[in-house]
Amino acid sequence: MTFEDGLPTVAEYRALRAAVGWPSPGPDVCRAALANSVHGVVARTGPELVGMGRLIGDGVMYLLVVDVVVHPAAQGAGRGRQLVAVAGARRVQLVAADEVVPFYERLGFAREPSHLMAYRTLR
């Protein structure tokens, strides 16, 4: 397995999201989302994408970790930990579902008392 800076193709991005049961908007929206990333990292086994993570934000003071995804066949071997690279920012945040909070706590993240609100969700 290799890790490299960069982003997946739109097709790879959508396929990896589908593999873990996440919804995905259409290709044009995914293309724009990927293009507006501050940084990305991908994990590959040969040519196959098996994991990815992205950072979005202003690129200087604040970053948000998004799309940390590891294909189910490659989970459980520390791949997610290797994908979360957040050095250089003053403040890095992420939104985590309850079932993955312990994973991020092991990486040094802590729950904050803030309350996030969502206007709409992907369909």
UniProtKB/TrEMBL annotation:
Source taxonomy: Bacteria, Bacillati, Actinomycetota, Actinomycetes, Pseudonocardiales
Protein name, UniProt field: GNAT superfamily N-acetyltransferase
Taxonomic superkingdom: Bacteria
Pfam families in the cross-refs: Acetyltransf_7 (PF13508)
Entry keyword annotation includes Transmembrane helix: no
Domain N-acetyltransferase: 1-123
Organism for this UniProt entry: Amycolatopsis thermophila
UniProt cross-references to CDD domains, sorted A to Z: NAT_SF
Keyword tags: Acyltransferase, Transferase
PROSITE patterns the record matches: GNAT (PS51186)
